[in-house]
Specification:
Elements: E1 11-12, E2 14-15, E3 20-23, E4 30-33, E5 36-37, E6 53-55, E7 60-62, H1 64-81, E8 89-94, H2 99-111, E9 117-125, H3 132-146, E10 150-154, H4 155-159, H5 163-170, H6 175-193, E11 198-200, H7 205-217, H8 221-226, E12 230-231, E13 241-243, H9 251-260, E14 265-266, H10 277-291, H11 295-321, E15 325-326, E16 333-334, H12 342-348
Parallel strand pairs: 8-9, 8-11, 9-10, 11-13
Antiparallel strand pairs: 1-6, 2-5, 3-4, 4-14, 6-7, 12-13, 15-16
Helix pairs in contact: 1-9, 2-3, 6-12, 7-10, 7-11
């Protein structure tokens, strides 16, 4: 989220001169409340009123009212297209307190007003000083506002150490690998323990495009076979099905929706993300999108078209080799077909 509003290309929003920024003198955390302003001569493609946002990849502009309706309708279409929800589902929302998971929580709560399902949230506290405590505060506040039960689980309580303390011993070079594996492991285990039918993940279409390109660049197509808008349960019964309602929604539009709905965006980023491979891929894709609008969404749609072929290959591999083995140390499923799961292998490294 750091410098998020800089170079607002694919989605253009003018922030009012009355935008207020208050920063804590100690942590420099910024709370930004932005009032969306019109874009000069732009007109809404629906009603001809002054527009507040332009979607360059689609060649359309919207006023605030029509944009929020467009945004919500697209999420609903995504949920329907991929059959993400069933009646009386118990949904665990993976809530970090960032813009994506918080907006997703609000949308699922709205869907739940007319669709019978049960929502609760899980927040994973990795123990990253100067970062997690602020987003955790947002998660608590938003759940209280919406009346959604929240469970907070920490690396310290489950693994006996924070991410900070682990990386002090092992170095920061693989920070995202440790964090990602530990977080996914814990989220799945806690959601299953709490009787969740699905875990809702706040991945937007930018995240999806980045993941697809990262796996191609690393020559890891099998990971992509397991990736998608709905994933998990088909691999192993111990994996809780993961759904991604924002799968076809660009990141900047999530931020725009949050501002229009008065959801606070905290401009603070993870201190370990700066050296991540994902940041490199993000930069490449953002530059490509700036020059060739719609590139990111085309990557996502191309992936979905290819995924059917990948799934057929994955199905044949399961038929030949069987489903993932159980880890001999923790009992969780091991997708790498080793005797130990990815988490136990990582934590056993010297």
């Amino acid at each position: 989220m750091k410098n998020f509003h800089k170079n607002f290309s694919a989605v253009e929003i003018r922030r009012s001169s009355t935008t207020m920024k208050n920063k804590c003198g100690k942590c420099k955390e910024g709370k930004t409340k932005a009032r969306v302003q019109t874009m000069g001569s732009g007109k809404c493609s629906k009603c001809n009123k002054a527009s507040v946002i332009a979607l360059r990849y689609a060649g359309i502009e919207f006023c605030q009212s029509h944009f929020t309706r467009f945004f919500e309708a697209r999420v609903m279409r995504t949920v329907r297209e991929f059959s993400m929800l069933a009646r009386k589902d118990r949904i665990a929302v993976a809530l970090s307190g960032g813009k994506d998971s918080t907006v997703m929580l609000h949308l699922l709560k709205k869907i739940g007003e007319s669709f019978p399902m049960e929502l609760f949230a899980i927040t994973i506290d990795e123990g990253i000083a100067g970062y997690r405590e602020f987003s955790l505060k947002t998660a608590v506040e938003e759940c209280k506002k919406l009346g959604v039960p929240l469970t907070v689980v920490s690396f310290r309580s489950e693994f006996g150490q924070t991410l900070d303390s682990l990386l002090k011993k092992r170095g920061e070079a693989r920070a995202c690998s440790y964090c990602g594996v530990m977080r996914r492991y814990l989220l799945n285990k806690v959601a299953r323990r709490m009787g969740a039918d699905k875990i809702a993940i706040g991945h937007n279409s930018d995240d999806v495009a980045q993941t697809v390109m990262m796996n191609y660049m690393r020559n890891e197509p099998e990971r992509l076979a397991r990736f998608g808008p709905v994933a998990g349960a088909a691999e192993d019964e111990l994996f809780v099905t993961r759904i991604k309602p924002l799968f076809l929604t660009p990141e900047r539009e999530v931020a725009a929706y949050a501002m229009m709905k008065g959801i606070e965006i905290k401009n603070i980023g993870c201190p370990y993300a700066k050296s991540a491979f994902r940041q490199h891929v993000r930069k490449i894709l953002n530059e490509t999108e700036e020059k060739y609008p719609a590139s990111k969404l085309r990557i996502v749609r191309a992936f979905l078209a290819q995924k059917k072929l990948m799934q057929e290959g994955a199905k044949k591999r399961i038929e030949k080799h069987g489903k993932p083995a159980r880890c001999k140390e923790c009992g969780e499923p091991s997708s790498n077909r080793e005797e130990r799961c990815a988490l136990c292998l990582l934590l056993s490294e010297k």
